[in-house]
Design a protein that fits this description.
Elements lengths: L2 E2 L6 E2 L7 H5 L4
Antiparallel strand pairs: 1-2
Amino acid sequence: MSRICTKCKNSILDNEELDMVAEKYPVC
């Protein structure tokens, strides 16, 4: 499952562990 960057709307590969904030507001 991929995420969408909250700034540029590009897709982000779900290959990194993100913290609580990054989970809700992922950015590339």
